[in-house]
Amino acid sequence: MDMHDKSGKAMNDHSEKLTQMMELTKRSWDERVPIHADDQTGLYDVASFLNGQDTLSPIENAEIGHVSGLKIAHLQCHFGLDTLSLARRGADVTGLDYTPAAVAKAQELAKQAGQSAKFVCADVYDALDHLPAGAFDMVFSTCGVICWLPDLGPWANVVATLLKPGGKLYLYDMHPAMAQLEEENGKLVATYPVGGTGASGALEFSEDESYAGDGRPLENKKTFEWIHSFSHVLASLLSAGLTLEFLREHDTLPWKAVPSMVPAAGRMFKLPDSMIGPSLSFSLMAKRT
Ligand SMILES: C[S@@+](CC[C@H](N)C(=O)[O-])C[C@H]1O[C@@H](n2cnc3c(N)ncnc32)[C@H](O)[C@@H]1O
After folding, report:
1. Do 209 and 277 contact (CB within 8 A), yes or no?
2. 8 is a domain residue
């Protein structure tokens, strides 16, 4: 992976160690794709999608507005369910993900669902080698995306460069305050530091199975993640020349971040009333002026 932004400026931490971390994480994602797409636990509800159900969460649905006719770049699209839901809404959408298995499965699902969408296999930091600059009305990236990126500065430059003047980034993801917590004995406990970037800021995780929870053992267990503070998210977007239209915090998430979370309306999850915690997710819209 070429770890520099499109202005040729080296990323803060262009170390061999970071490249290795990104490679190990990518392998783990590649291995998870068939597990997620098989959907033995129904987490992704692929069958309902193929029956015509939209996969966007109620929050995304309420906030993205009408997308019919818009040219959308969907970054970190996994195996394409949301990409194809955007296509169903009439968008001209291109999904991008860095694992070959994700892109192959997304292309297969597009055929099965009879939807036309393009899919590109590339690292998000290299997106401008694969997608046209200044061509998109919207960059859409949601639900477990920024934690895989070691630095949001170069990412925000890529996003801003993909957008047309007037085009918008829609980002919806886990709240950094929630990302710091684990559940212990029914209480949320601050466990992970927030705010690191590059190899020195990486958090290492090892998981025996994917979060889909079907019990199939993973060979590529190790992943590296980052918890980005709001100040890093916002400073990166503003430095890339984007203007913030809104930033919102929400008390639901589309997945169970801790075991005690309970179902909420629209296939979402929330903390039980007995558990005091922070907002679970945030969303923002930022415009290229
Ligand atoms: C939790 S999934 C995102 C879910 C997705 N929004 C969806 O619609 O299902 C995270 C995705 O990010 C991808 N990813 C992680 N780092 C990436 C990178 N640097 N470049 C491109 N894709 C990346 C992974 O392969 C994975 O498919």
Report:
1. no
2. no
Ligand 1 is surrounded, with C-beta below 6 A, by: 29, 76-78, 81-82, 97-99, 102, 123-124, 142-145, 148-149
The tens digit of pLDDT for each residue in 40-90 reads: 988 899 999 999 999 999 999 999 999 999 999 999 999 999 999 999 999
Q: How far is CA 43 from CA 151, 165, 247, in A?
A: 29, 37, 28
| CATH number of the domain where residue 137 is located | 3.40.50.150
The angle formed by the CA atoms of residues 289, 76 and 167, to the nearest 5 degrees, is: 15
How far apart are alpha carbons 160 and 154 in whole angstroms? Answer: 10
Q: Let me know if residue 1 belongs to a domain.
A: no
Domain count, the chain: 1
Residue of the CA atom closest to atom 26 of ligand 1: 78
Contact (CB, 8 A) for 277 and 257: no
Residue 266 belongs to what domain range? 16-288
The rounded Å distance from CA 199 to ligand 1 centre is 19
Closest CA to 174 of 279, 96, 263, 93: 279
Quick one: which atom of ligand 1 is closest to the CA of 1? 19
Q: What percent of the chain has pLDDT over 70?
A: 95
Residue 99 lies in a domain: yes
Q: What's the 79 CA to ligand 1 centre distance in angstroms?
A: 9
Residue 77 CA to ligand 1 centre (angstroms)? 6
CA atoms within 13 A on the CB side of 227: 18
pLDDT per residue as tens digits for the range 222-253:
999 999 999 999 999 999 999 999 999 999 99
Closest residue by CA, ligand 1 atom 12: 76
Q: How far apart are CA 147 and CA 203, in angstroms?
A: 10
In this structure, which residue's CA is closest to atom 14 in ligand 1? 76
